[in-house]
Write a structure and sequence with these properties.
Blueprint: H1 45-57, H2 61-74, H3 80-98, H4 101-115, H5 128-144
Helix pairs in contact: 1-2, 2-3, 3-4, 4-5
């Protein structure tokens, strides 16, 4: 790959073909990386939660965020903020594990705020209240301490 040109897919859209590590950081061309999540996958809410939980448990919150992003973009309008909030939690954990304390804490709090309207309902068995508490507590710890381990800090998505 000529690194002076942008990577493009078959339709000409910009794509970054560089391999990535488990936290989504780019690696040098030719280095072994973690398989990326396919984009635009239409999953049921249960499939989304199952796949995202698997990735979170494996210490891959960046990849879980991509799963939530698919649900956010393809789901019903009334649930967009729910999935967007979950994606923000995953990205917040990603940044926190990368050592970006300011960005990580900010995204964790933003995600908790996006989930707030769903606290009573808990659609699809999502532990909205518990996730919001987890995000706020982790944000406080991230700001006060060292980098966190993504797999150790993985939240439970369902009640």
């Amino acid at each position: 790959m000529n690194e002076t040109r942008r990577d493009r897919d078959a339709e000409g859209r910009a794509r970054n073909a560089r391999p990535r590590d488990g936290l989504g950081r780019p690696l040098p061309y030719g280095a072994p990386g973690v398989e990326r999540q396919p984009e635009g996958v239409d999953r049921t809410p249960a499939e989304t939660l199952r796949e995202a939980q698997r990735l979170l448990d494996a210490g891959k919150p960046f990849h879980a965020h991509e799963v939530f992003e698919d649900a956010w973009k393809s789901g019903p309008q009334e649930e967009r903020e729910l999935w967007r909030g979950l994606a923000q939690l995953a990205v917040g954990l990603t940044h926190s594990a990368r050592g970006n304390t300011t960005g990580g804490a900010r995204l964790l709090r933003r995600g908790a705020g996006a989930l707030a309207p769903f606290t009573g309902a808990g659609p699809h068995g999502i532990a909205v209240g518990g996730l919001s508490d987890w995000a706020r507590q982790l944000a406080d710890r991230v700001e006060a301490g060292p980098t966190v381990d993504a797999a150790t800090e993985a939240p439970r998505l369902r009640r």
